[in-house]
């Protein structure tokens, strides 16, 4: 039996009928058509499905949609600024080559966005720690880490709030 | 930036450019296989064998079929041609390399996870429930799980009426017995390497439907759209009734080279006449798709006091698992590559690939090269140690150089820069780090490799590309390639933009549709840039000739004097004498001059080599490189930290330096995972590591940045002198890691992965 569920996704509120056990990732992808969030393992081990919950990175495959009612969910589709402007993190990933097949990219960008929100000028160790839950098989992480450094540069010192949510 | 050669003045080639596909990827807009839906599509699931070795006595699908919401349940008896031969997208048929390919299990089960039945239902939950209602009666059989055991007389027979030994090769050069007599030092060792998974982040997935003309259309994550022929053969329909579309892949690494979901989807669509989707779970992916072959390798190598290699003898046994798939080809790569990038006068290599009841093995990045690289490079270091030479010294004395012949007689006619890659890689490691605690030991290792790019020459490989220029001067490229994420389509955009004098953003590349894009072959064997890059360059050059000829008329100058750039055609000596590209295109159109060209590029075509001696040419060319590492090992715990990694390759000519560096970074880590941590652990055919919690791959905290050095010799056979990097970049890392650990602890680990347990064992701690 489906139940009513009100989700705040990317700044807008939607009420849907979902199965009580429906995972957040399925509601995002199937009910809301937000397929930018990827499923790589379904066990919370690869980080491809990372979204932000009240600004903090979580695995959408491990959450039941009903659990996140009333909390702000941000997906990769929610990062674009006004007029389709790329966020600093998105811009840096494009320019610095932190992308190969792109399957891990949305999750990586969400984790990097959360990091720079909290720590605008992270050390390399902080960047690596923030990305430890996001597996990538193509890049060897080097250009991803470089992209996060470049995003921090774009944001500039002491302006952590500029990265769009 | 790459160094070495005086670079030709390219506008776009050799620059670092964001790929055209990058923007959609950061927006989350790229529609991978699993992101695509068709109205009314059913969800498919696969019933897989619980036993690694068994006889299927009966299958009862009655209860499953009666479940509301189930549209179809298929077993082997529903497959028109269930038994066929494995073919891999090539158009030239080569005997001796094909094995049994069974779509759904019948008679004997050959590995755990083999597909037994298919279900299509209105939802995943119903499909899942239906799987539980299919009653299969098995008679479990003993099975065989070790390839060396499987090739003994009297071993359990994996198949019905075929030998467990699939095939064997020999390489014979000189007289190896005489060779060892010349040696002052001989080392001998047996090396074992494990089964590993590709671990691409995107599991196998696809959607299929019948189009309005009744063509079975499959949109799936595949490295080979030309599997449409094999699928049509299974269904018993003509080849032009099956179409495969390959969207952007979430990684391939060889694991999407064999058919995965495609035949299942085609069968279910054919049966239900409805659209059907199928995506593997991660567990299903790890348990049941092809893996990298485990090998047992006995090596014996001899050298003189001066460090010159005089003889090498190798016996290779690879574990093919339950079905043949690409095992004979992978083994051939290992056999040719067994002697590494070294000149050795006396060589004897014997190799066999053997069926067992393990998960089947097939293509995996490097295709038989990383296994033998590990063994060969370990031998080199052992010889160096006994001779009191440094690892670099012994290698320098033995590297093959341009004009030298491999043990197979093949002369290396193109650029060979191995020595330079080794010098540069080692130099870039810099000053050695000091140990940070009394139990820590620092070690350094290098490994060099020679890895082919381009498919085997007896396959007579071809690729096609269509380049056209539109009325406004924008450019379209159509090429039936599969983009696995390495920048395959992007490289064609750069090539066309370079040749036609337009910025990269003026080029749109259409790829991956067996019905609409000219067939271009597989995205495997590091062949894409070489084959489709050359085809695109050829087609773009033909279009350029037409345009330049017309511009010469318009400008009243000799065509030889004209150059293209900035959307103009202009006199190289007098750049003010110029005409806009758009105007030239319109003038050509008015005169009926073709504004497109379809070009075919053919790789060198050779006959099969002699399997008794190994003599002949197998590959078009090779990429040479060296990786160097510095590690610290805690001798109390066996824990290893990788402190530095350098990867140095002769790339020929980088097309996009951002992409080429990305290959070097990613390849080094792919290979390091093989050396350091990865292993599909099997217990009598049962996978004990079916998730990323058990099957560990490198994460962002496991490794330092890879320092990359690109040498550009310009000596490749790809476009603009490029060589291939995709597979070569991963090959030596495991060997370099093992050599570094050995240097640190003064003892050798002969099995991969080099785990803390194995290190402590090598140190005699238990």
Brief rundown of the structure:
The complex is a heterodimer of chains A (165) and B (766). With 165 residues, chain A is of the alpha+beta class. Chain A has five helices and five strands; from the N terminus they run ββαβββαααα.
Features:
heterodimer; A: 165 residues; alpha+beta; 5 helices; globular; disordered C terminus; B: 766 residues; Aldehyde Oxidoreductase, domain 3; Aldehyde Oxidoreductase, domain 4; seven-stranded mixed sheet; five-stranded mixed sheet; 25% strand
Give a topology summary.
The complex is a heterodimer of chains A (165) and B (766).
Chain A: E1 3-9, E2 12-18, H1 24-31, E3 50-53, E4 56-59, E5 72-74, H2 88-96, H3 105-118, H4 124-130, H5 142-155
Parallel strand pairs in A: 1-5
Antiparallel strand pairs in A: 1-2, 3-4, 3-5
Helix pairs in contact in A: 2-5
Chain B: H1 22-27, E1 42-48, E2 54-60, H2 62-66, E3 70-74, E4 83-85, E5 100-102, E6 108-109, E7 115-121, H3 124-132, E8 135-140, H4 147-150, E9 165-173, H5 176-181, E10 185-193, E11 205-210, E12 216-220, H6 228-235, E13 242-245, H7 262-272, E14 276-279, H8 282-288, E15 295-303, E16 309-321, H9 327-337, E17 346-355, H10 369-387, H11 391-396, H12 418-428, E18 440-453, E19 462-469, E20 475-479, H13 488-500, E21 507-511, H14 528-555, E22 562-565, E23 568-571, E24 578-580, H15 581-590, E25 596-602, E26 621-634, E27 640-650, H16 657-676, E28 682-683, E29 686-687, E30 706-711, H17 733-745, H18 756-762
Parallel strand pairs in B: 1-14, 12-13, 16-17, 20-21, 27-30
Antiparallel strand pairs in B: 1-7, 2-6, 2-8, 3-7, 4-5, 9-17, 10-15, 11-12, 11-14, 15-16, 18-26, 19-20, 19-25, 22-23, 23-24, 26-27, 28-29
């Amino acid at each position: 039996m489906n139940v009513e569920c009100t989700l705040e996704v990317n700044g807008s509120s939607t009420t849907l009928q979902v199965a009580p056990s429906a995972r957040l990732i399925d509601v995002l992808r199937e009910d809301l058509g937000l397929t930018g969030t990827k499923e790589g393992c379904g066990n919370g081990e690869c980080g491809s499905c990372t979204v932000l919950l009240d600004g903090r990175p979580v695995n959408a495959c491990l959450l039941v949609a009903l659990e996140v009612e009333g909390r702000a969910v941000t997906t990769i589709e929610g990062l674009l600024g006004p007029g389709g402007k790329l966020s600093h993190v998105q811009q840096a990933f494009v320019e610095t080559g932190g992308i190969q097949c792109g399957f891990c990219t949305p999750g990586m960008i969400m984790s990097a966005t959360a990091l720079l929100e909290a720590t605008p000028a992270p050390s390399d160790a902080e960047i690596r720690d923030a990305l430890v839950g996001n597996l990538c098989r193509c890049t060897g992480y080097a250009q991803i880490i470089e992209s996060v450094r470049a995003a921090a540069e774009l944001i500039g010192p002491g302006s952590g709030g500029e990265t769009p949510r | 930036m790459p160094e070495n050669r005086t670079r030709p003045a390219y506008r776009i080639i050799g620059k670092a450019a964001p790929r055209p596909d990058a923007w959609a990827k950061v927006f989350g807009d790229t529609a991978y296989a699993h992101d695509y839906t068709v109205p009314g599509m059913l969800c498919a699931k696969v019933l897989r064998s619980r036993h690694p070795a068994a006889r299927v006595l009966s299958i009862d699908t009655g209860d499953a079929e009666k479940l509301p919401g189930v549209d179809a349940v298929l077993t082997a008896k529903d497959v028109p041609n269930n038994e066929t031969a494995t073919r891999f997208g090539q158009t030239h048929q080569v005997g001796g390399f094909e094995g049994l390919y069974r779509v759904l299990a019948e008679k004997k089960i050959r590995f755990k996870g083999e597909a037994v039945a298919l279900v299509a239902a209105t939802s995943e939950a119903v499909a899942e429930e239906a799987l539980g209602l299919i009653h299969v009666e098995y008679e479990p059989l003993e099975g065989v799980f070790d390839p060396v055991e499987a090739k003994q007389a009297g071993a359990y027979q994996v198949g019905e009426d075929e030998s467990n030994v699939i095939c064997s090769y020999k390489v014979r050069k000189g007289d190896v017995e005489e060779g060892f007599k010349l040696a002052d030092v001989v080392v001998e060792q047996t090396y074992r390497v494990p089964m590993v998974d590709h671990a691409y982040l995107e599991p196998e997935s696809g959607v299929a439907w019948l189009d309005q003309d009744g063509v079975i259309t499959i949109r799936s994550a595949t490295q080979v759209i030309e599997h449409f022929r094999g699928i049509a053969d299974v269904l018993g329909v003509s080849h032009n009734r099956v179409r495969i579309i390959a969207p952007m892949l979430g990684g391939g690494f060889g694991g999407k080279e064999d058919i995965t979901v495609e035949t299942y989807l085609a069968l279910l669509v054919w049966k239900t006449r409805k659209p059907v989707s199928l995506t593997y779970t991660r567990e299903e992916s790890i348990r049941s798709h092809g893996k990298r072959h485990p090998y047992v390798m006995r090596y014996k190598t001899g050298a003189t006091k001066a460090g010159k290699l005089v003889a090498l003898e190798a016996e290779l046994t690879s574990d093919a698992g339950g079905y043949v798939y690409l095992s004979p080809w992978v083994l051939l790569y290992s056999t040719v590559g067994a002697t590494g990038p070294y000149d050795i006068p006396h060589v004897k290599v014997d190799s066999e690939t053997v069926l067992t009841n393990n998960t089947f093995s097939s293509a995996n990045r490097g295709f038989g090269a990383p296994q033998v690289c590990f063994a060969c490079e370990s031998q080199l270091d052992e010889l160096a140690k006994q001779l009191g030479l440094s690892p670099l010294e012994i290698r320098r004395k033995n590297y093959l150089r341009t004009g030298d012949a491999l043990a197979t007689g093949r002369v290396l006619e193109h650029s060979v820069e191995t020595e330079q890659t080794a010098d540069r890689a080692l130099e870039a490691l810099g000053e050695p780090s000091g140990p940070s605690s009394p139990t820590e030991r620092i070690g350094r290792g290098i490994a060099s490799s020679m890895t082919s790019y381009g498919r085997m020459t007896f396959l007579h490989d071809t690729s096609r590309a269509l380049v056209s220029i539109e009325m406004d001067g924008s450019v379209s490229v159509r090429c039936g390639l599969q983009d696995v994420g390495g920048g395959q389509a992007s490289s064609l955009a750069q090539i066309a933009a370079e040749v036609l004098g337009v910025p990269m953003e003026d080029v749109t590349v259409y790829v991956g549709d067996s019905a609409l894009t000219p067939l271009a072959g597989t995205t495997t064997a590091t062949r894409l840039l070489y084959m489709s890059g050359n085809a695109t360059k050829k087609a773009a050059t033909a279009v350029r000739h037409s345009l330049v000829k017309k511009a010469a008329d318009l400008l009243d100058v000799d065509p030889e004097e004209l150059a293209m750039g900035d959307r103009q055609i202009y006199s190289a000596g007098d750049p003010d004498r110029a005409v806009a590209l758009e105007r030239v295109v319109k003038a050509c159109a008015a005169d009926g001059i073709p504004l497109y060209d379809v070009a075919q590029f053919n790789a060198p075509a050779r006959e099969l080599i002699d399997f008794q001696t190994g003599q002949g040419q197998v590959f078009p060319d090779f990429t040479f490189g060296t990786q160097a590492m510095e590690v610290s090992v805690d001798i109390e715990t066996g824990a290893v930290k990788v402190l530095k990694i350098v990867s140095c390759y002769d790339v020929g000519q980088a097309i996009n330096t951002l992409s080429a560096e990305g290959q070097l970074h990613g390849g080094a880590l792919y290979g390091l995972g093989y050396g350091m941590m990865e292993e599909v652990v099997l217990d009598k055919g049962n996978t004990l590591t079916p998730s990323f919690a058990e099957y560990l791959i490198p994460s962002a905290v496991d490794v330092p940045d890879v320092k990359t050095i690109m040498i550009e010799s310009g000596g490749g056979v790809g476009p603009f002198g490029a060589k291939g990097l995709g597979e070569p970049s991963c090959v030596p890392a495991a060997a370099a890691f093992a050599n570094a650990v050995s240097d640190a602890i003064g003892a050798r680990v002969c099995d991969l992965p080099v785990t803390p347990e194995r290190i402590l064992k090598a140190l005699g701690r238990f």
